[in-house]
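Reading a protein record of the kind used here takes only a little practice. Each token is a code from a learned vocabulary of local backbone shapes. With that in mind, consider the following protein and its fold in token form:
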Amino acid sequence: MLSKTIRRHFTELSKEELYRILDLRSQVFVMEQKILYLDTDFKDQKSVHYFIMDGDRMVSYVRLIPPKIKFEEYALSRVATLKDYRGQGIARRLIEDVMAEIKGHPIRISGQAYLRKYYEKLGFKVVRGPYIEEDILHYEMLHPND
């Protein structure tokens, strides 16, 4: 059974939770998408981490980066859901929970191009791109979150 959205500041994460976050991101971005990048960008320590568990398995994750670290606005990044759990609205639920928490503050993302329509359905609008990031086509997108 899927958990409710779990929210943790970096300093609140247990070692096990941090390990599961890094594992999930590695499974999705490195193993599945074949992106060779340095995941440890030192933004995790300043971010709030949101995830959903299925028992002891982390199945979906997103981090919220405060303003002026990646963009002038809040930033969503490292959105990842295990392949077996996609298409169930889990990542959407995470993103909507984050947006509700910071209602009234715009959110900017650098989203993979193949997910453009997905993010547009959530209300994000393309403001720049396409451009290459980590050897993958991306769009910078903004949501007013009002």
Q: What stands out?
A: The longest strand covers residues 57-65. The chain has three helices and seven strands.
